Amino acid sequence: MAGMYFLLYPRSPFDLVLYFGWWVRKTFRAQTRAAVGAWIGEQFLLGVISRASGALGGVAFWAHVGGFASGLLCAALVLPKATAQEREDILRPKALTEEEKEELFADRAEKRSELITLKLNQ
């Protein structure tokens, strides 16, 4: 799926997150090409390193590379069937209106909590 997303939506905004262990170190705002490109590059590099070191495993890295390639292939089969307007909409999506944003993010709105707070110090 990442390969399909990479080809169909190359300019979509994407958050690229750098981790150190379990902790998030930094988040970069990027386009799909940079974020997914960095991820698949990492998977490929780790696959090569695991293979070269003779370590057992490394299957997951190559599975991600293969899945990415199959996603690219599927998108390459679908994209030529799209009309010129559909391709333009894919490559240069229009900004959402305020109403569309509200509808899209309605589930993220802050809601009053129904939890009861215990006040033990009184």
What does this structure look like?
The chain has 122 residues and is an alpha+beta fold. 52% of the residues lie in helices and 14% in strands. Strands 1-2 form a two-stranded antiparallel ribbon. α1 (2-8) packs parallel to α3 and α2 (32-52) packs antiparallel against α3 (59-78). The protein is flat, with a radius of gyration of 21 Å. 7% of the residues are buried.
Secondary-structure map:
Elements: H1 2-8, E1 13-20, E2 23-31, H2 32-52, H3 59-78, H4 84-91, H5 98-104
Antiparallel strand pairs: 1-2
Helix pairs in contact: 1-2, 1-3, 2-3
Outline type: flat
- Binned strand content: 5-15%
The quaternary organization reads as single chain
What is the share of helical residues?
A: 40-55%
Mind summarizing the main beta sheet? 2 strands, antiparallel
Q: How many E-type strands?
A: 2
Q: Uncertain runs with pLDDT below 50, 5 residues or more?
A: none
- Count of runs of 4 or more consecutive helical residues: 5
| SSE class | alpha+beta
Largest sheet, order of strands side by side? 1-2
Ends distance: 55 Å
Q: On the 0-100 scale, what is the average pLDDT? A: 83
- Radius of gyration, Cα only, in angstroms? 21 Å
**Which H/E pattern describes the elements?**
HEEHHHH
